[in-house]
Amino acid sequence: MTGDRRPGRPRSEATRRAILAAAIDELTERGYAQLSVEGIAARAGAGKQTIYRWWPSKADVVLDAMLDEAASLIAVPDEGSLAADLAGFLVDTFRQRGQRPVLVGLMAEALLDPVFAVQFRDRFLFGRRDALRTVLARAADRGEIAADVDPEMLLDIVFGVLWYRLLLDHAPLDEEAGRQLATLVVRAAR
Amino acid sequence: MTGDRRPGRPRSEATRRAILAAAIDELTERGYAQLSVEGIAARAGAGKQTIYRWWPSKADVVLDAMLDEAASLIAVPDEGSLAADLAGFLVDTFRQRGQRPVLVGLMAEALLDPVFAVQFRDRFLFGRRDALRTVLARAADRGEIAADVDPEMLLDIVFGVLWYRLLLDHAPLDEEAGRQLATLVVRAAR
DNA sequence: TCAATTCGATACGAACCGTCTCGATACTAA
DNA sequence: TTAGTATCGAGACGGTTCGTATCGAATTGA
């Protein structure tokens, strides 16, 4: 790779991190609706153009920031049974506190901007989906999933409940809920 | 009631309908992200102030428009079995075509504006949720739902999958999907 | 030394926001 | 008929954010 051997001033890693941190801070303090590129630049001590040079939109900044700090902690449990794996996956997912404002903001942006929606799906949503798909495939090999059950529908049930509760905030998203959901999915799969 | 016996020029029903229709037309033609109060007013041949006098935000206009034309077609099937009732409810729901842009726009707005989120939940989401809760209550009376199963979690499974597929648009939301989901829920409930 | 590139900063036009004002219109009450 | 009241369409207004363009300074490789 000759990527970082080009002439000219190199990209500032310090500024990059300052922008990502400023985006998360602004988002959690004032909410996604109040988030602006100008606000991020001001808090980061950077120019607007520096942001637009590297990210197509503020949503991409937030997505990068989240992926950076989450470091893709997609654990793929393998406890030997679908019930244990599912419960582990859900409890592990629900344990991540304080991410709701970020996730809700990213989803809102994805609903409004089809271009960003692709980024959001490919770089975040489908990653976690693939992890759970692996879990289901192992369960199918063990005969825990009936032949007439579409694994994709099971995936949609798990992530559907997860996102529905996250977005509406009408019911808890805790370990108890995780165990409940895991039990029902195991039963549905037969 | 003396409500429509006040002094002064009465509210124009024609203008009200023109605004609601203009909102839906603008939304479906250009998308929710491009929807503006100025655009609605221009297309409706109305003044901006006329919109702001009756609705707090553009999202409330869209919500009113949708509730107006949908006329709250919340059917509560009663076929004698949970399987049949669920399949009926889902197939009936999925049959409503062309509503995706409207629903996605309303959800996006609800995620960004907590005040509107309350309107959205109370005037739309909870209405359909109540209908399905009635279906589940009857099934419970018939002994089709195990005692250890929380009906609220079953509701979240149904609406979770519905909204997850609607928002992400990664899998079909057709009658086949409805039957599949109904089968799984019946199994989960035992 | 020189060309290339990024940096922070700021100016710019465009769009839309929500408020306000205007004269015209349509209704009630006296 | 007249006075009072509320709505109507239209548009001006200041404010905010957008995304682009431009500036001189800073930092690199050749």
UniProtKB/TrEMBL annotation, chains A, B:
<dbReference type="InterPro" id="IPR036271">
    <property type="entry name" value="Tet_transcr_reg_TetR-rel_C_sf"/>
</dbReference>
<dbReference type="Pfam" id="PF00440">
    <property type="entry name" value="TetR_N"/>
</dbReference>
<keyword id="KW-0804">Transcription</keyword>
<feature type="domain" description="HTH tetR-type">
    <location>
        <begin position="13"/>
        <end position="73"/>
    </location>
</feature>
<dbReference type="GO" id="GO:0000976">
    <property type="term" value="F:transcription cis-regulatory region binding"/>
</dbReference>
<keyword id="KW-0238">DNA-binding</keyword>
<dbReference type="InterPro" id="IPR050109">
    <property type="entry name" value="HTH-type_TetR-like_transc_reg"/>
</dbReference>
<dbReference type="InterPro" id="IPR011075">
    <property type="entry name" value="TetR_C"/>
</dbReference>
<feature type="DNA-binding region" description="H-T-H motif">
    <location>
        <begin position="36"/>
        <end position="55"/>
    </location>
</feature>
<dbReference type="InterPro" id="IPR001647">
    <property type="entry name" value="HTH_TetR"/>
</dbReference>
<dbReference type="GO" id="GO:0003700">
    <property type="term" value="F:DNA-binding transcription factor activity"/>
</dbReference>
<keyword id="KW-0805">Transcription regulation</keyword>
<dbReference type="Pfam" id="PF16859">
    <property type="entry name" value="TetR_C_11"/>
</dbReference>
<protein>
    <submittedName>
        <fullName>AcrR family transcriptional regulator</fullName>
    </submittedName>
</protein>
<dbReference type="InterPro" id="IPR009057">
    <property type="entry name" value="Homeodomain-like_sf"/>
</dbReference>
